[in-house]
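Let's sit down with a protein and look at its sequence and fold side by side. Which protein we use is up to you, so please pick one and set it down. Label the sequence line and the structure token line clearly, so we can match residues to local backbone shapes. Go ahead whenever you are ready, and we will take it from there:

***
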Amino acid sequence: MEASRVAVIVEDDRDIRDLIEAVLIQSGFEVHAAASGEEGVQAVEKHDPSIVTLDLGLPDMDGFEVARRIRLFSDSYIIMLTARAEELDTLLGLESGADDYITKPFRPRELRARVAAMLRRPRMGDTGASPVGQTPVPAAPANGSEQPEGNGQTQVAEPATNGNPPGTYLHNGLLLNHQTRTTEVNGQEIELTRTEFDLLHALMESGRVVRTKTDLVRRLRYEDYDTGSFISDADMRAIEVHIGNLRRKLGDNSREPRWLETVRGVGYRLAPKTLR
């Protein structure tokens, strides 16, 4: 069985655990189940899964703490399952390292769709979707191919890959290598989750072209075009949280951004190049 087809279920409710296990086995996974947070952390460390489903309410520790512990050593995709639909729980889950969440009760096909979308995205060390030597095509700009600057001048949008080796992007001291899936700021490596890395990659390959939140949701699902799939307000709010986590890890300031600039009411793009 390939390592890429291994999943760990961390769920104390046996009925739900059995349901998730059946869905994942039907999807071709080797499944390992745990009924507590501690067992779940140990299972992830032992089996190195590509997917982890994580219950929020566990008997020994909450799912937030489990996600934080898993993130200390694993880049597995974490889907948090919660019976609580409050936005605060969602935000805490994403901030603790989860990549996605599903509210209970859920339909098996919804879980299958989320898992399938994540598996379309590369793991650390994979070469990713862009062939070596081929510059990725930026997203279509939200408002034309030129982006107005605050001083009234117009700057043509350019990807951060210009002049750099294939698969690498450099912008204001931030270096992203898509081939090795590593990120550095002024030579110091920054640890990102796979979702954070994919978002940063999308923005760096687009340069000053604005990427809408809807566009970024589709990017995380690896949908190359609008397939008509449903994108909720919660999905777009999740993008905001992931961008906030990215800024925190990079040490960026949203008011005076060095890398990630918010275009209010639209989305995000790279901040202008600096002279330093």
Q: What stands out?
A: The first strand starts at residue 6 and ends at 10. Helices lie at 14-26, 37-47, 63-71, 87-95, 108-119, 194-206, 213-220, 233-250. The mean pLDDT is 81. The CA atoms of residues 9 and 177 lie 31 Å apart.
